[in-house]
Structures are given as structure tokens and as C-alpha cells.
């Protein structure tokens, strides 16, 4: 399941960055990819919709969020945890 989650998150981020999924690396930050705050919010909405999860993210206070957006890999890990919590709960 992790590969499917990773691939889908990368596809969503790539779409926001107007890049090919192969150009999105796990160590890249959203800033590296040229994604601004609006693109971040759109990515979060797309991730919530794709995985039917609720992302604990406050666009007004992104630093106070429990959702780690420090890198693509961190976002993937956070989505994997949310999906696992949802399936387990």
C-alpha cells in the first residue's frame, strides 16, 4: 500500500508544481518545487480527497500543524500514518 500512497502523493504534488512525477524527489521541499502557499493548500485538499482522510493542517498557521510539510518524504509519511489510522480506527 505504501508504494501506492507514495505514488499518488507524488502525482498530486507534481501536478501542483507543474512537473512530471519523476522530477519530484522525496528529499525535495515544496519550495524547491516552486509550490507556494496556495499550491500547498490545493495539494492538501487533493490529498484529503484522494485518500478520504482529514489532514490536520491549518493554512493560517502551518508551523503549528501536526502535518509535517518539510519535504515530500515527510508528507508521504504523514499521509501513510493518516491512512493507517483511518483504516485501524
From TrEMBL:
Chain segments annotated as coiled-coil in the UniProt record: none
Pfam families, per database record: PP-binding
Alphabetized UniProt keyword annotations: Phosphopantetheine, Phosphoprotein
Keyword Coiled coil on entry: no
Domain of life: Bacteria
InterPro entries assigned: ACP-like_sf (IPR036736), PP-bd_ACP (IPR009081), Ppantetheine_attach_site (IPR006162)
Encoding gene per record: acpP1
Protein name (Swiss-Prot/TrEMBL): Phosphopantetheine-binding protein
Organism: Roseicyclus marinus
Carrier domain location: 3-83
